[in-house]
Amino acid sequence: MSTTTATSLLRFATAGSVDDGKSTLVGRLLHDSKSVLADQLEAVEHASRSRGKEAPDLALLTDGLRAEREQGITIDVAYRYFATPRRRFILADTPGHVQYTRNMVTGASTAELAVVLVDARNGVVEQTRRHAAVAALLRVPHVVLAVNKMDLVEYAEPVFARIAEEFTAYAASLGVKDVLAVPISALAGDNVVEPSSHMDWYGGPTLLEHLETVPVGSDPSAEPARFPVQYVIRPQTEEHPDYRGYAGQLASGVLRVGDEVTVLPSGHTTTVAGIDALGRRTDVAWAPQSVTVRLADDLDISRGDLIAAGPAPEPTKDIEATVSHLNERPLRAGDKVLLKHTTRTVRALVKEISYRIDIDTLEQRSGAEGLNVNDIGRVVLRTAEPLALDAYSDNRRTGSFLLVDPVDGTTLTAGMAGEAFDTVRATDTTEEDWV
To answer: Domains plus CATH for the chain?
Structure first.
């Protein structure tokens, strides 16, 4: 159910190395698409003049933090909303510095498209490969390579072609299938919103044209329904003495009255007796609607349980996952953590760091003592309670999780579940290990 109507929404993330011009690109995109308010533009013009610049510094439209403006870099994820007559957009502008790669994981986790920016003078660098790897790891469906500063290389087609070929080959090795390369100059506005008169050799779309027309969304009916229970509603009033509903947001798929569902991890089966949305009864709900579901049987269901229709994942305590470590504190084998999956949080043990992925060569480096900040690797976890995780490749919402420090609640690691396995080993953790 792809759509390009005015009501469609594209979530996309931008990423690039420091000084590649990413903030200028985002500012140009907002400015030329007439998505900047008059007072915002006036403030940017005033700040630019105070710095001795004749033209507005469009990077200031996105570099909102004082530390960013002082250092001239982006260090946080800046979310921007804008719209054109053809589509609405939520843009996550992510940092370029290697130490802030973890912020890209946050910004790209819900994105349907990633714009990876490179400087035409420098080509594909280590951070470019890292951003491509993160986009591939997070299963971002569409990737755009924006080759910026073409004005500084005389708008030379061979320069663009060489960079596009190198990046596309690397992305293909990561399993990224949809890559579009666009030659641009964010400073001059070439091929960002308007076609460039300097690059008549390029016959593809401008960046904005591609953003407006790339297929987004999917057919909810093609995905199995997954409904994490967030809250149990039992008003017990005279008007509704027997009402019992389960509130939450439908993570994927379509749920209909009469559907047979499985409640996980208990495995009990029942049928959907009713669905309430915005205080009204309805016969059907689809992701990502927030609804209240009523079931035919009175089952023991609480926050964190998963109501699933269609093929249901097998609950397991043993999880193998690819992870991106986000914290300055290393993640090591033997660490006790909390694992947050949808609305469920359980205790877990890091049993093994299987390997760390070398971003340059994509080789698996085994024997790692732990994962440091921005490292991507493979881990084996054992949870104190069974979890119903889908494979991340099948469902980004119910196949992802976070590892959290049990002492101070700090987020440590973002995880993407692989195929769950149930091998029982003599060293398995038990409930007593947590006492």
So the answer is: 9-213 (3.40.50.300), 220-309 (2.40.30.10), 316-434 (2.40.30.10)
